[in-house]
Write a structure and sequence with these properties.
The complex is a heterodimer of chains A (394) and B (538).
Chain A: H1 16-22, E1 27-31, E2 34-39, H2 43-52, E3 54-58, E4 63-68, H3 72-79, E5 92-98, E6 104-114, E7 117-122, H4 127-132, E8 140-143, E9 148-154, H5 158-164, E10 178-183, E11 186-191, E12 200-206, H6 210-221, E13 226-228, H7 231-241, H8 284-293, E14 297-304, E15 314-317, E16 320-331, E17 336-344, E18 353-362, E19 365-376
Parallel strand pairs in A: 3-13
Antiparallel strand pairs in A: 1-2, 3-9, 4-7, 4-8, 5-6, 6-7, 9-12, 10-11, 11-12, 14-17, 14-19, 15-16, 15-18, 16-17, 18-19
Helix pairs in contact in A: 2-7
Chain B: E1 3-9, H1 13-24, E2 29-32, E3 44-48, E4 51-54, H2 65-70, E5 80-82, E6 87-89, E7 95-97, H3 102-112, H4 114-134, H5 150-164, H6 167-179, H7 182-187, H8 193-200, H9 216-224, E8 227-228, E9 231-232, E10 236-238, H10 243-255, E11 259-261, E12 266-272, E13 275-281, E14 286-294, H11 298-303, H12 313-321, E15 328-335, E16 355-356, H13 361-372, E17 381-385, E18 400-407, H14 420-435, H15 441-444, E19 445-451, H16 453-460, E20 496-498, H17 512-524
Parallel strand pairs in B: 1-2, 1-14, 2-11, 6-16, 14-20
Antiparallel strand pairs in B: 3-4, 5-10, 6-7, 8-9, 12-13, 13-14, 15-18, 15-19, 17-18
Helix pairs in contact in B: 1-10, 1-17, 3-4
Classes of the chains: A alpha+beta (394), B alpha/beta (538).
The complex binds flavin-adenine dinucleotide.
Chain lengths: 394, 538
């Protein structure tokens, strides 16, 4: 019999039996109340599965919302900054959504599954906001987070591994495309998406078929050197690829208590996601005002001298503090020491030379280095295979 | 006739590194390579269709990250992927495994000896102390203790200071470390034969010495002082094979406007009035430059491509007596599938690392006895890896490639040249050893490239097939490498320099000698230093 407390204990994803068997280190973390591994065998080796072979990540805890109904497109178009009418059926779009003050609430992806049928994947729990925004639209919003299991399969041999699993024609799928395959009496949705900046796919399946999918994937993927990876390796990959992490690189606007702590899309380097030519959307007015008056901050990617990650560093210009680092990592494939920084305007032009004040500890002794760094205009990792159609075998 | 600013003889990875920095500084540079392909001992070739071998060097750790980053080698296609694992198979059917995770490693060691498992922590601390001493000197020229130049005095002082910081005990340890045998060193920590053998092998790799010969502890250190992404002591594979290192260096060099000319076998360095003028090829072609840099080992540089009349008698003696003895061979094998090994699951993380079959120092020493007797080891020490468990690019999916480094193989068999029958005997001793631990191994072999010192020398030009361009013993290290008075990359005539592994800090795919030499050349030309210094450890 279930005790009263079971209902609030840590959850397990539909892949848990397989994940637990593979998690040799027993290094568990939590993600939205789910037990998820931070590492399976070794963070570095898992990171290199993403960059050299194929890595598999259980992203089932991701918040997933199904939006259906005659007004689905109009509803989403009002909700997010991008023009949703341009995301054709069978395509996926990355976007952000803002509150009325033009501050980013979250970033996520919109999957256009079919006519009047969308799925929104979000970092933050969004049920309240999605229903709140539905007023006056003929749409249905369903939280399907628990029903849909998902695996990210990322890396240069990911396509070869999935082809070996029998996903015929997958090599023709374009980046941000999605497609369906029959799978054991159900449907397997595959999108060419991911959070690693590499060639990669995400597999979406009904929870009751999850274990079967895992088994088939690893069986077919073995000759292609497939391996599971945890959240620590993912973090390295996403920083190298220049991806922001909600809750790390920005505070979701509705959870910011102190004024001035949230950010607009422009201030996060995500201005390209804002379409002022489409009908009215949340935050539009505020964003127009910001365009006219100028932003307070600028997101910058920094190439930092030396090999000490500039985690939590202050960024200085002429000896004066002009910003802080939100994410930092030594990037093993690009062999670059990268930091994401929030800089006060007008700092952050590409090429600007700054200084990162880095503290690090060795055997209990703290050392400070003032590492020169410069603003770079593009992520340090962006291989051609990420876009190639068809992608190669590795 | 066109005149270059500088000519580098040899497109080994050090020659290419040197050339890249000279070109980066704005000089017009050509690299002349004898082979139709580049890389020297840093080379990958497809000898069996669908399989790529790392024909000579096969694993990467020493390559200086500062250089890889500065020359943008990742952008030019280089990716170094670390691996874990490793195992020594024992004659009694058991094995000793080397786990990447520290605590699993402890448990595996404790399975053999709890005391050893505990001592391993003391051992790694002591070895790390030594790597910390040497690592800052990798990207610097060694100070000359006989020089009174301010720069040398300053460098010497710095060197002395880091020594003194170690304290009296540390100093004594250091001196012992640099002169001791690897066997004696390991005996101070461990009691289990298989563990000592597993750790000790790197003390004799590429070295014509045995595990009980003084000086081999340093060779072990030489294999420990590298890193992959800051993890000191870690090793990795260059994705696509070690040739990827040379290929990326070449691209970087070309991006700076450099020129690589293959099939250019240099006959001699032309010297006039005590200054270099260029080089002449075997086919009679001449290339002119006021700077000529030799990537060849010291023996070949001074006794082969330089005219004896241009050198002092003392230098000629030194070159002739330079210790550069061949001691290693190699097998590269294309496999139809992943072989199974007694006692190990095919999915074991131990399989992806270095595998050995020599379970005691005693057997290692006996293997050396064969070398002294002028023949290959009948029970060799092998360092064997299957990189295709990590790298998907070197064999078709599901198929595998095996690299087997073999210690010992002498440069001559009983004083005579290697014959094809000798080579077959050498190959057999290796394959028999592997097959004794792997029932299906023999049947999986599709193709095998066997390299004795004869083939290594013929293909790479490494004298006697010595993999480090000269032995890594204390008498040939730092300011003694290659010879006293010539350790700062400058040759005996004006405009002539050395940049190969025969110079400080020595052999391995490190790129440090090439970079350090470039710094000295640019200094002599009074050009700005474009060569990066080393990252500080703390
Ligand atoms: C079998 C083997 C295994 C090894 N394994 C490893 C390993 O796993 N990891 C590691 O770090 N190191 C390893 N090493 C050592 C490492 O490969 C070498 O120390 C390093 O590659 C030497 O580089 P170099 O540039 O100094 O010289 P070389 O690579 O020797 O380059 C010299 C170049 O000069 C060319 N040349 C010679 N004569 C002439 C001439 N007359 N004219 C024009 N060109 C000429 C040669 O063809 C060659 O290309 C191994 C070496 C061998 C042989």
């Amino acid at each position: 019999m279930k005790s009263a407390s079971d209902a609030t204990m840590m959850l397990r994803t539909p892949f848990h039996s397989r994940v637990a068997a593979a998690c040799e280190l027993n290094a568990w973390g939590t993600w939205k109340g789910y037990t998820t591994p931070t590492a399976y065998t070794d963070v570095e080796l898992e990171y290199f599965a993403i960059r050299s072979t194929a890595g598999v990540f259980d992203l089932s805890p991701m918040n997933k919302y199904r939006i259906t109904g005659p007004d689905a497109e109009a509803y989403l178009n009002r909700l997010v900054t991008r023009d949703v009418s341009k995301i054709r059926a069978g395509r996926v779009g990355y976007t952000v959504w803002c509150n009325d003050a033009g501050q980013v609430m979250d970033d996520g992806t919109i999957f256009h599954l079919g006519e009047n049928d969308y799925r929104v994947c979000a970092f933050a729990r969004a049920t309240d906001w999605l229903h709140w925004s539905a007023l006056g639209f003929d749409v249905e919003v369903v939280d399907e987070s628990d029903e849909v299991a998902a695996l990210a399969v990322q890396g240069p041999t990911s396509c070869a591994a999935l082809l070996a699993m029998g996903l015929v024609g997958l090599e023709q799928l374009k980046p941000f495309g999605l497609t369906m395959f029959p799978f054991e009496g159900g449907t397997l949705m595959v999108s060419r998406t991911g959070f690693t900046g590499d060639l990669g796919y995400e597999l979406w399946i009904a929870a009751d078929k999850a274990e079967l999918l895992w088994d088939r994937l690893f069986e077919a993927g073995r000759p292609h050197l497939i391996k599971p990876f945890g959240s620590d390796a993912l973090d390295m990959a996403r920083i190298e690829a220049g991806f922001l992490q909600a809750g790390v690189d920005f505070v979701p606007a509705e959870s910011a208590v102190r004024s001035g702590r949230s950010r607009s899309p422009y201030e996060l380097g995500l201005g390209w996601l804002v379409d002022m030519d489409k009908p009215v959307f949340n935050g539009r007015k505020a964003l127009l005002r910001e365009q006219a008056r100028g932003s307070r901050y600028r997101f910058a990617m920094l190439d930092v001298d030396g090999n000490k990650p500039a985690s939590h560093s202050f960024i200085l210009s002429g000896g004066k503090k002009v910003g802080t680092v939100t994410s930092a990592a030594w990037c093993p494939t690009a062999k670059t020491n990268v930091a994401f920084a929030q800089l006060e305007m007008p700092h952050g032009d590409v090429g600007q030379e700054l200084v990162a004040e880095i503290y690090y500890q060795r055997e209990l002794q703290w050392t400070r280095v003032m590492a020169p760094c410069r603003v770079i205009g593009a992520p340090v990792f962006n291989p051609p295979r990420r876009r190639a159609v068809p992608p190669g075998a590795f | 006739m066109k005149k270059y600013d500088a000519i580098v003889i040899g497109a080994g990875h050090n020659g290419l590194t040197n050339a890249a920095y000279l070109a980066k500084s704005g000089l017009d540079v050509a690299v002349l390579e004898r082979n139709p392909y580049i890389g020297g001992a840093t080379v990958s070739r497809e000898l069996h269709r669908g399989w790529t071998y790392s024909n000579c060097s096969y694993v990467c750790s020493l390559l200086r990250p500062e250089i890889a980053r500065d020359l943008e080698l990742p952008r030019h296609g280089l990716q170094v992927v670390p691996y874990g694992g490793g195992v020594t198979f024992m004659r009694n059917g058991d094995y000793y495994g080397n786990y990447y995770d520290h605590n699993r490693q402890y448990r595996e060691m404790a399975r053999h000896s709890k005391r050893d498992a505990n001592a391993y922590e003391r051992y790694t601390t002591d070895v790390m102390k030594q790597t910390r001493l040497i690592r800052p000197y990798l990207l610097r020229r060694p100070p000359d203790p006989t020089s009174l130049k301010p720069r040398d005095l300053r460098d010497l002082l710095g060197f002395a200071r880091s020594f003194m910081e170690m304290g009296e005990e540390g100093l004594a340890d250091t001196l012992r470390f640099w002169t001791k045998s690897v066997g004696d060193y390991l005996n101070e920590y461990f009691e289990t034969d298989a563990i000592k053998a597993h750790l000790g092998g790197t003390g004799v790799i590429g070295t014509a010495l045995g595990v009980y010969s003084p000086g081999t502890a340093y060779v072990l250190l030489h294999h420990y002082m590298g890193d992959v992404d800051g993890n000191v002591g870690s090793w990795g594979f260059a994705r696509g094979g070690m040739g990827a290192v040379a290929a990326a260096l070449e691209k970087s060099f070309r991006a700076f406007g450099g020129e690589v000319i293959c099939d250019a076998d240099v006959d001699r360095i032309i010297v006039r009035h005590g200054k270099v003028r260029g080089v002449a090829l075997k086919n009679g072609d001449e290339y002119l430059a006021d700077i000529v840099v030799s990537n060849l080992d010291p023996r070949r540089t001074f006794l082969d491509v330089m005219d004896e009349g241009d050198l002092s008698a003392e230098l000629l003696h030194r070159a002739r007596n330079f210790k550069i003895r061949g001691s290693s061979g190699k097998l590269n094998i294309a496999l139809d599938g992943l072989p199974s090994f007694h006692g190990l699951d095919k999915s074991s993380p131990l399989m992806v690392g270095d595998m050995h079959f020599t379970d005691s120092l005693e057997r290692l020493e006996r293997a050396y006895d064969d070398w002294k007797d002028g023949t290959w080891s009948k029970d060799p020490y092998v360092d064997m890896l299957i990189p295709t468990q990590t790298d998907p690019t070197m064999a078709p999916p599901g198929k595998h490639m095996m690299t087997v480094f073999v210690q010992y193989a002498p440069p001559k068999i009983n004083g005579g040249e290697w014959t094809d029958a000798d080579k077959a005997g050498f190959e057999k001793s290796v394959i028999d050893q592997i097959a004794a631990h792997s029932p299906d191994f023999r049947d999986l072999i599709l193709h095998c490239e066997t390299r004795t010192p004869r083939e290594i020398e013929a293909e790479t030009g490494l004298t006697e097939g010595n993999i480090f361009q000269g032995e890594l013993t204390f008498d040939q290290l730092l300011f003694n490498r290659p010879f006293p008075g010539y350790s700062q990359y400058r040759g005996p005539v004006r405009g002539m320099y050395m940049c190969g592994s025969g110079t400080h800090p020595g052999g391995g795919v490190m790129a440090a000698p090439g970079a350090n030499a470039a710094r000295e050349i640019l200094r002599d030309l009074r050009r700005p230093d474009v060569v990066p210094g080393g990252y500080a450890d703390d």
